[in-house]
TrEMBL record, chains A, B:
One of its GO terms (molecular function) is hydrolase activity. Pfam families: Ppx-GppA (PF02541), Ppx-GppA_III (PF21447). Keywords: Hydrolase. Belongs to the GppA/Ppx family. Residues 25-302 form the Ppx/GppA phosphatase N-terminal domain. This is Ppx/GppA family phosphatase. SUPFAM superfamilies: Actin-like ATPase domain, HD-domain/PDEase-like. Residues 317-465 form the Ppx/GppA phosphatase C-terminal domain. PANTHER family: EXOPOLYPHOSPHATASE (PTHR30005), RETROGRADE REGULATION PROTEIN 2 (PTHR30005:SF0).
Length: 509, 509
């Protein structure tokens, strides 16, 4: 199997090169991502042809990409072209030109293939079973009906953000008249999409720059504390708010709007209106944004995760990838995870946690020491940063933030302090949860402080005032006194009991 | 050569195990660091012997350390004991006991060896030529006169923080009478130290927990924005302030003092007074804190950086180590660095920077992409975090912070924004410097955006209103338009000229 890959995506608005590799044959990591706003689509609707100047910029861009691929010594390069080249009468001329001057062989993919790759990118990185995937690009829009993680149906329509902008004159102010015409057009186009009927009530799984920008603008508006595009979720009202707000702005106002990309200020209104119109049409309650799409889908397919072989467990897969990236001591991480689960189970009557905290417990336990990669001192703070910023998949963003806080607090007795900025996302009961789960992690971590897995079992006996913990070890004893002195106060505060520890050394099996 | 090492340091106050390894045979990284407050020294001054309970805790601790060393499969374990074991009549009994129960062979090292190892740890990680090194531990204090990076002289005195506390009853309130007696004792002891005469006016290079705590308390008091112990610097007045303040506190107040470790509240006053007394005695203007000491010295010696083979260039050595740790694309980093230096040189008459910014330019250029290790998206922000927190050596802390800001700003046109918290360390002119240096880095980065080193040379022609930059490339052209659109505005703002770029493609040599 090839170990490094470059994916060139020749879109209607921009041309991308993404480079990724299996590091040490172990874990996958994106090491480069270049975008050039070539706007191949520009003027296409007038003449039906790619314009000379756009093709020239495309050629220069692909020349650079070719050099980059050579420099990276990639095992495999995949180049695909979507709507602009697909629709243009001279699309093949462009493909031939690029082949001649750069050697890159571009495959013009049909809309349905584009939809299928969008689906692969999203479904392998977001833990969802049923949704309507929507990818609106510069020159087309794709829809995939996802049922039980499978692609049940797909369709591609031949208009995108640039077409809508040009057709309805939406660069600057969208007058009520223009918007009305836009809506009428969209309603007619969407009326012909049969799969919408079966998508009624599903969340929209959104792919592409327009939708990422809707999310980013919203995060700025509500002062959202995290800057993570992937798996950001907005309810229908929130999407409506952003789409209405931006439609009322003129170009200058949009240029100054925080969260909206420079290269997208003029072509944003038509496409964002289309997103909202889809949500209305299928009565969708929620927009779930995927940062992964076509390019990621091509990478997944290449490395064996095609439609019949989806990533089985997105969360575990991502966790392992992250542990390998940062050289985590995996046996220790698993052992600490196992012990913290035992504590959680055995102390259930005291902590009373009912909700599903399994992913947060696993994330924080497996990655509690990940910050050592940065520097040993203050590594719990570095673990906080790395858990939040490493693109972990399979968790909600709130779960990710809480996991980071649990890991951060696994080395302190103090009550959880949450900076004001994060409180827009966390409530008081979340803080109490962090407090409890970080206590279990802290005790588990001390039980394996010798890193050698000597604690074979624990048995907590809950009395009226005290929890008597019996610890079975092989070889040597745990530091019962140290654990009590480091965690005893927190235990008492959080669970209302004293903690005592007895150690029994048993023969190793 | 062995690739992984464990260093066990049996001190008077605490017992440490540090584990480090050469990862992929390439770069050194500390992967574990455990401390147990064994307090072997406790009661020693009364009987001249290590107490049974202290030895038992020491034995349990070393049993755990032995298991850890086995689990890590270390190539080499070094165990040394310092003052407590050295001074105790039953020191050898303890060493024999440990050998018997754990197999660990402890070497009792004399004070002069301890001083020499402190010296190796500090001199290989802090870029300084002349200083008086001082390491005050629990049971002894070492001094090394450093001249031109060499160890010119060394001495060890047989008292430390625990001795001073016990001898003068300083656990709780230090009454004026107690302090007076302490000072008289210190004056007499220091009067006999001949090398102090030759150390007149030198900075004190401080090693050990007491001195690290002086620094940490000071950072809390002045709201210092970084949490970095190593190479933190305080002038004589600042040291005086912390030492006077803590001497007036009772034990309860010291327990609540931010920055002072829990395990050190009772033994802090005597030792910190000794530090200040030394500064007074030699008329030292400054305390430079080294986070590296004995244990690091032993590691350096083991891996070939002994007194005759010091790390030649601490800064470069640390930079390379960091690049390897995060899989930086090294050819690209070097190329960008070279181009930014060329821009700096050629635009000298416009930017007018006189001070030495060479280390900041190198750090920010070599590490501008380091954040890709975390995640490609927003990698400049991750680079900021990693530059600040990776323990880079050979720079002042302020240079480190500015380097992080230069890297952070290499992807934006905007004026440098510095969060209020950092402004205690940076002034307005520093922000202007960051603005200029990040501009050069940004242009250099775009010139090698294709990652393939095609730009062989640049030639900037400074006219009245414009800077005409001629770029010589091989193979393909640079994206002149993209560079202008991304950096032109910033160029104009920072240097007061328009930027134009001409590209000449020359044959590859």
């Amino acid at each position: 199997m090839d170990k490094s890959i470059g994916v060139i995506d020749i879109g209607s608005n921009s041309v991308h090169l993404v480079v990724g590799e299996y590091h040490n044959n172990e874990y996958f990591h994106i090491i480069d991502d270049v975008k050039v706003n070539v706007r191949l689509c520009e003027g296409l609707s007038e003449t039906g042809c790619l314009r000379e100047d756009r093709m020239a910029l495309g050629e220069q861009t692909l020349m650079m990409f070719k050099n980059m691929c050579d420099t990276y010594k990639l095992d495999k390069v995949i180049a695909v072209a979507t709507a602009a080249v697909r629709k243009a009468k001279n699309g093949q001329v462009f493909v031939d030109l690029i082949k001649k001057t750069t050697g890159i062989e571009i495959e013009i993919i049909p809309g349905e293939t584009e939809a299928a790759m969008d689906y692969l990118g999203a479904i392998n990185t977001i833990d969802i079973r049923d949704a309507l995937l929507m990818d609106i690009g510069g020159g087309s829009v794709e829809f995939v009906l996802i049922r039980d993680r499978k692609m049940a149906d797909a369709v591609s329509l031949p208009f995108g953000s640039i077409d809508l902008t040009e057709k309805f004159g939406l660069e600057d102010v969208a007058t009520p008249g223009k918007l009305q015409k836009l809506h009428a057009f969209l309603e007619e186009a969407f009326a012909g999409v049969e799969l919408f009927e079966k998508a009624r009530g599903l969340p929209v799984l959104g792919v592409g720059g327009t939708i990422r920008n809707i999310g980013r603008i919203h995060r700025r508006v509500v002062d959202y504390p995290l800057e993570i595009a992937h798996n950001y979720r907005m309810c229908e009202d929130e999407v409506a708010k952003i789409c209405h707000m931006t439609a009322k702005m003129n170009l200058e106002e949009r240029k100054n709007l925080k969260g909206l990309s420079k290269g997208r200020t003029d072509i944003f209104v038509g496409a964002s209106q289309a997103v909202y119109k889809v949500m209305q049409t299928i009565f969708s309650p929620e927009l779930i944004i995927s940062d992964a799409g076509l390019r990621d889908g091509l990478i997944f397919k290449h490395f064996g995760n095609g439609p019949e072989d989806l990533v089985h467990n997105i969360f575990d897969n991502s966790l392992v990838n992250t542990m390998l990236n940062y050289d985590v001591n995996i046996p220790h991480a698993y052992h600490v995870y196992g012990l913290s689960v035992k504590l959680f189970e055995q102390l259930k009557s005291l902590h009373g946690i009912e909700e599903d905290v399994s992913r947060m417990m696993k994330t924080s336990a497996m990655l509690h020491d990940v910050g050592i990669k940065i520097q040993y001192s203050n590594h719990h703070e570095h673990s906080f940063y790395l858990i939040l910023n490493s693109g972990l998949e399979g968790l909600l963003q709130k779960e990710l933030l809480m996991s980071a806080f649990i890991a951060l607090n696994h080395r302190t007795n103090k009550k959880v302090k949450v900076e004001a900025e994060y409180m827009t996302l966390l409530r008081e009961e979340d803080k109490r949860l962090i407090d409890k789960l970080s206590l279990f992690l802290q005790i588990a971590e001390y039980l394996d402080r010798s890193m050698d897995g000597i604690v074979k079992d624990i048995d907590c006996d809950i009395k009226d005032d005290v929890v008597e913990m019996m610890v079975l070890t092989t070889t040597h004893s745990v530091f019962a006194d140290m654990i009590i002195s480091e965690c005893g106060k927190k235990f008492k505060r959080v669970l209302g009991r004293e903690l005592t520890i007895k150690n029994k050394v048993i023969a190793a099996v």
